[in-house]
From TrEMBL:
Domain Nucleoside diphosphate kinase-like residue range list: 6-144
Amino acids binding ATP: K14, F60, R88, T94, R108, N118
The family this protein is said to belong to: Belongs to the adenylate kinase family. Belongs to the NDK family.
Active-site residues, Swiss-Prot/TrEMBL: H121
Protein's name according to its UniProt entry: adenylate kinase
First-to-last residue of the parent protein present: 1 to 157 of 381
Basic and acidic residues bias spans: 97-108
Spans through the membrane: none
Stretch list, region Disordered: 92-126
Compartments where located: Cell projection, Cilium; Cytoplasm
Originating organism: Gracilariopsis chorda
Superkingdom, natural source: Eukaryota
Biased composition (Polar residues): 115-126
């Protein structure tokens, strides 16, 4: 008997893909994710800078934070077994042009524009998921559904 670890991850539909939100949510659900939190927010440049703080020394940081504060973003908490890796795989490579070549069915291939305007974000580790979920949903980590729990009702044979 295998106990599957249900994870939570943070997904963002970035401003460039906000008009495609419905299509992206359809793909998310079709791939078995449960959407446990959702929120539409327009980030200030300061909040966007805080979210992407780890990239503050990179040349693209200013353009990235300008882009991320240019319009509404949809923030979601997605849950399923292996959600972090699974969502990143569904998004595809960071650069949408590369995604169109290497993963044509991915979300970034379908809805992204280039290496910066790439439609979606996904946490890249359990630690970043915890930080990023708390960034948008400060109450979430106190709920019983937080990352890394062995959830008995998800027992599979
Ligand atoms: N980004 C960019 N230029 C680059 C690399 C990244 O504008 O050369 C942006 C892009 O929007 C990306 C985000 O910065 O999604 C975070 O970069 P990261 O390398 O963490 O990629 P991700 O985890 O989003 O695939």
């Amino acid at each position: 008997m295998v106990v599957e670890k249900i994870e939570s991850t943070l997904a963002l539909v970035k401003p460039d893909a906000f008009d495609n939100t419905e299509n992206i949510i359809t793909i998310i659900k079709r791939n078995g994710f449960v959407i446990s939190e959702r929120q539409v927010v327009t980030l200030s440049k300061e909040r966007a800078a805080q979210f992407y703080e780890e990239h503050k020394e990179r040349s693209f940081y200013d353009d990235l934070t300008t882009f991320m504060s240019s319009g509404p973003t949809l923030a979601l908490v997605l849950r399923k077994a292996d959600a972090i890796t699974s969502w990143r795989q569904l998004m595809g490579p960071t650069n949408s042009d590369k995604a169109r070549k290497e993963a044509p069915d991915s979300i970034r291939a379908k809805f992204g524009t280039d290496g910066s305007k790439n439609a979606t974000h996904g946490s890249d580790s359990p630690q970043s998921a915890a930080r990023e979920i708390a960034f948008f949903f400060p109450e979430y980590q106190h709920s019983s559904e937080f990352n890394g729990q062995d959830v008995r009702e998800y027992l599979t044979k």
